[in-house]
Design a protein that fits this description.
The structure holds two protein chains of two kinds. Chain A is α/β, with parallel strands linked by helices. Chain A is about 35% helix and about 30% strand. In chain A, strand 1 and strand 2 form a beta hairpin. In chain B, helix 1 crosses helix 5. The chains are: A alpha/beta, B mainly alpha. The structure holds adenosine-5'-diphosphate and magnesium ion.
């Protein structure tokens, strides 16, 4: 498999404050993103996700380390021509309308003049902004800015799309729509690198993840590798039986409207609960086995530090 | 091509900025005020109008250059629009040059507007279009280009307020540096003279662009001085722009 992004031993520190004090932000980041995958860059706020992305883009210069995009030096125009970038909390020229803005950026690529209009129209449709194409960006809501941000990142049909917290600040519907677009990008063969501090986002769509805490990568791999498939416990919602009879099989977690949520730890106990229910003519409303989630892993790791 | 796209976007952004029209408004008021002055004073009325008019063009043009020059680059950094822009396949110097040409274009248009009003007012008094005034205005434009490059240089690394102050200082020093020349002639010799001479060579002399008196009074200007002033403007601007690019290339956008 070809690599899209290759980062080796990346270090970066900032000099901050009136009397400059050096603060280490990245402490030797190494990671590899394969072509065609959705790669999740996961870490709590302030871990250094945005800083890493800025290094990749050449917005800041690393103190040390090597970055390659598709085998090219990351600052070569050849590499830059192949990437699209959506910043965190995007904000764009508010004096321009959505289409004017995309037109401006399209001029920075070598997109032929007669192709521009068509391309822009198409992109506006992809991100669902048809109705607002001629509205000034100053009147755009958060979610709409996120969409136009995604559109500008896709102008050059990039092979690699870098998205910094692409789902941040969106409502559930907006999140789903952006997630769908990201998955579609993968289907088109693009590589997606996305950062997030929200696990569900990553868990749902990423092939591989790297977890960064405090400027260091502490885990990296496929989701299956990072999370055991082991069932932690099973949640069963039942009604029509006396809870006291279930006491030694699981912990009754909550009760509402005559229904009991039971958390069963041992696999054999699940069978016993079901048998008991059958004999007592009780009802079972749901049964969900809970495996370890990325969140569990994440919480565990962050707690250890 | 890429530079042009950035320049036109900068131009668009600038002309949609209200501050520009406020300054333009005051400039027009001042040019109009010259007429009042002319009525109240004895002497050559037309000369007063020309004097005050050209001075207004120069002063308010400089104000515009400082305001938009320091504002627009900083805004890109502050609002982070520069993040996506620089992640496109462009070089940083292209960004800076695009900004520069966009600002220069804006100033050109503003100067043009003010000149039309000014020439109109003069026409109203003399009943002929005095094209030779354009020579003085051309040198005002050269000066504005230089001021813009200085404003760009400062806004590469400091806040708009500080950059405005620095650029304003550059403008004021630039118009008083000729005082040093007199000083140099007065000082006998020694350390003081050497210092004054060094300062004189490094400080800008914006009076090189001031042909107002000569033009208004129809004095002859030797072509050598013309050429010198043009070259002075072009090379000084290039020098400052190069410096700006060197600083801009190295900086981190945290
Ligand atoms: N402009 C800035 N000024 C001061 N500190 C900053 C700035 N930007 C980032 N940092 C510091 O760098 C660290 C990493 O930030 P960042 O990469 O933005 O984290 P993330 O994107 O993972 O939330 C943070 O601890 C933050 O304090
Ligand atoms: Mg961030």
């Amino acid at each position: 498999m070809e690599t899209a992004v290759h980062i080796e031993n990346l270090h970066k520190s900032f000099k901050l404050g009136f009397i400059p004090k050096t603060k280490k932000i990245l402490k030797g980041i190494s990671l590899t993103v394969n072509q065609g995958e959705i790669f999740g860059y996961l870490g709590p706020n302030g871990a250094g996700k945005t800083t890493t992305i800025k290094c990749i883009l050449g917005l800041i210069y690393p103190d040390q380390g090597k970055i390659e995009l598709f085998g090219h030096h990351h600052l070569s125009l050849k590499a830059k021509a192949q990437i699209g970038f959506l910043p965190e909390n995007p904000y764009f020229y508010d004096h321009l309308t959505a289409s004017e803005f995309l037109y401006f950026y399209s001029q920075l690529f070598l997109i032929k003049k007669n192709e521009r209009e068509k391309k822009i129209k198409n992109l506006i449709q992809v991100v669902g902004l048809e109705k607002w194409a001629d509205l000034q960006l100053r009147k755009f809501s958060r979610g709409m800015l996120q969409r136009i941000g995604l559109a500008q990142a896709l102008l050059n049909e990039p092979s690699l799309v870098l998205l910094d917290e692409p789902l941040g600040g969106l409502d559930p519907i907006g999140r789903k729509e952006i997630r769908d677009i990201i998955v579609r990008l993968k289907e088109e063969g693009k590589t997606v690198f996305l950062s997030s501090h929200i696990l569900q986002d990553i868990e749902m769509i990423c092939d591989r993840v790297a977890i960064i805490v405090n400027g260091e990568i502490i885990n990296q791999g496929t989701l299956q590798d990072l999370i055991s498939e082991k069932i932690l416990f099973t949640e069963i919602v039942i009604s029509g039986v006396d809870i006291k009879e279930l006491e030694n099989m699981g912990e009754p977690f909550s009760e509402r409207g005559g229904r009991t949520l039971l958390r069963v730890r041992k696999e054999g106990d699940v069978e016993r609960v079901l048998e008991l229910l059958r004999s007592k003519k009780g009802k079972i409303h749901s049964l969900i086995p809970r495996t370890e989630t990325l969140e569990d892993l994440f919480v565990e790791i962050v707690k250890q530090r | 091509m890429k530079i042009r796209a950035i320049a036109f976007n900068t131009f668009k952004e600038a002309i949609r900025d209200r501050i520009l029209y406020l300054i333009l408004f005051f400039a027009v008021v001042c040019i109009g005020f010259s007429r009042l002055l002319a009525i109240l004073t004895v002497g050559d009325r037309v000369k007063i109008i020309k004097d005050v008019g050209l001075a207004s063009l120069s002063l308010f043009g400089a104000l515009m250059a400082i305001m938009i020059g320091t504002g627009l680059v900083y805004k890109e950094i502050e609002k982070k629009t520069i993040y996506t822009l620089l992640s496109k396949p462009i070089h940083r110097f292209q960004f800076l040059l695009g900004k520069f040409f966009g600002l220069v274009l804006t100033l050109f248009i503003m100067l043009l507007l003010m000149s039309i009003i000014f020439l109109g007012l003069v026409f109203f008094h003399t009943f002929k279009v005095e094209w030779h005034l354009l020579i003085a205005i051309f040198f005002i434009f050269l000066e504005l280009c230089l001021i813009t490059s200085v404003a760009l240089l400062f806004s590469c690394f400091s806040t708009p307020i500080l950059s405005s102050l620095f650029t304003l200082a550059f403008y004021l020093i630039g118009h008083t540096a000729w005082g040093l020349e007199i000083l140099i002639k007065k000082i006998k010799s020694g350390f003081g003279k050497a210092l004054a001479q060094i300062l004189y060579h490094f400080l800008p002399d914006l009076e090189n662009f001031n042909f107002k008196t000569e033009i208004v009074h129809n004095l002859p200007i030797p072509p050598k001085i013309f050429l010198y002033s043009i070259l002075y403007g072009v090379f000084y601007t290039l020098f400052v722009l190069t410096l700006a690019v060197l600083i801009f290339r190295k900086r981190d956008f945290i």
